[in-house]
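Chapter review: from sequence to fold.
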Amino acid sequence: MEKYLKKCLCGFSNYETKLIKEKYVVNANESPFNIGEDEVLRNIINDVVKNFNFNKYPDPNANELREELAKFVNRNKENIICGNGGDEVISLAIMTFVEPNDTVVVHSPSFEMYQVTSTINYGKIIKVPDLKGYVINTKAIIEESNKNNAKILFLCTPNNPTGYLMSREEINEIIDNTQSIIVLDEAYIEFSDLEEYDYTNNDRVIIIRTLSKLFGLAGLRIGYGIGSKKMIDCLNKVKPPYNVNGLTQAIATNVLRNKELILNRINFFKNERDRLIIELRKYNYLEVYNSSTNFVLIKTDSIYRDSIIKNLEKNSILAKVYNNKPELENCIRVSISNREVNDLIIESFSVEE
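The token string follows.
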């Protein structure tokens, strides 16, 4: 079959997901809260499903959902585009702007889908390594983008997998000193303390957000982009007409109308994240990085790594273990779960020195 493949796919490896057999899954930054367990939300969802017209195509423009999202982020509906998860909005941006051999700049390590989707679309990826401690190298990003006439520049903040939060000054410095399309991936923004900023007056900026993380709707796959009307109009040129299914639209719209039930969980995530970091830092053989997300990145030495992995397996915990990634050597990422599971995670990182 190789002779039929697009040339860019020869030797290409897609984003890998792992078969789940463990009891506790903390490898995908999912919420531990199932919205169906909340009585109010469960009743709302039951009503939505009971009255849903399964025989009808969904609204191709997701108008009601976009209206609720616009209220949530204090923008206008024309500034919002919906996608089948944040991944689709990433894909829309690349399909809209990247032509064969156009340069795409990303900081590294970061979310792998930027490289995967760029490669599929014949984009040329340039990775800018982080500074020590996984601090994003702002000046190097600007230099590489300008030197290579980058078409798109991806900034993930807070960053997956490191948890690093760029300051608003760092972000604006990159925007002001490059000519690229800037994609700000803010999938984890609700867990951070970054102040809100309106970029809809800048046609080069698109923000990506999701209802998968804090809102716990990962199973429904709902992401969205925020940008100027000109930016959104451009993305709509390549968006499939029925990309977000109708049931997803209806449930997400009604959850947003009752968003206070979800937003009151933010402090739980922040408190448990901080507790996890404090407890793990008591182990001298771990380097635990600050995080502005719902996950924590931990680095250790190879002599402890295998023992930790065995402990996680013994406790039936599926964490994100990084293999064959030099920039993340001996790193393990764990999502914030409920208090019981978080205690089990802390216990699993305890090994004999």
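Two observations follow directly from the output. The CA atoms of residues 208 and 225 lie 5 Å apart. The first strand starts at residue 24 and ends at 25.
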